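> agent: user asked for a holo structure of the chain below bound to S-adenosylmethionine. Plan: (1) validate sequence alphabet, (2) canonicalize SMILES, (3) run complex prediction with ligand conditioning, (4) return tokens. Step 1... ok. Step 2... ok. Step 3 dispatched.
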Amino acid sequence: MNRILEPELMDDPEQAHIYASANFTEENQGFVDRFLQAHGHELENAHVVDLGCGPGDIPIRLVQAHPTLRVTGIDASQPMIDIAQRMVAEANVSDRIELRCQRVQDARFPTQVDAIISNSLAHHVPNPLQFWYVIKTIAKPGAPVLVMDLIRPESTEDAQALVDQYAAEEPERLRQDFYNSLLAAFTEDDVAAHLAELNLSRLLLDVPDDRHWIVEGRVF
Ligand SMILES: C[S@@+](CC[C@H](N)C(=O)[O-])C[C@H]1O[C@@H](n2cnc3c(N)ncnc32)[C@H](O)[C@@H]1O
């Protein structure tokens, strides 16, 4: 099955609200735990960037689990950033999380950043090489990177089966977004080709379950 793009941004307020209300605790905490287990010891006072931070759940979990790192979360959806601002304020971590309403392709920093994370953004970006190029450009040499996203199934029937298996009880809008995201996602081979194209040879690709790929390592 070929990739079918979905809208790049989740900038419909109702869509953002439904996404932010869904329970991604297991997935998001697992992502944070994995990143900190591997790199927590080298992140003292580090500047971590979260590409496509959505409602901010991962940045919040990250600063709550580490005493000194700070996060810049970037998302080009104003409704998502509005929700993230509220969540960050409610969690009392505004002094450690900065939020930017900006396309990741336009992200620039005065100095290269210490680490980069991104969950469930890559499939939104029409040109995946732009996504990896940003990572390569804004990260300092040797910076840890953790990226996770969906894997495109082989058929629309397989995509629907995953939606029915993992989002049976979710609101219809979330189920539809999940389905569209699976169709817009990359295969394992796609991701391997993107990494090779940009010479990101110190990033390793893993497939931890039936619907995700993870890229982890360092950028040089
Ligand atoms: C599926 S959500 C994931 C949010 C968050 N990372 C999480 O794990 O909960 C994807 C987010 O990426 C944002 N997004 C998509 N394309 C983007 C781009 N080019 N630049 C910045 N944000 C983008 C969307 O607006 C949306 O909020």
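> agent: step 4 complete. Summary for user: Residues 8-10, 24, 52-54, 57-58, 74-77, 80, 103-105, 119-121, 124-125 surround S-adenosylmethionine (CB under 6 Å). The beta strands are 47-51, 70-75, 97-101, 115-119, 143-150, 203-206, 212-219.
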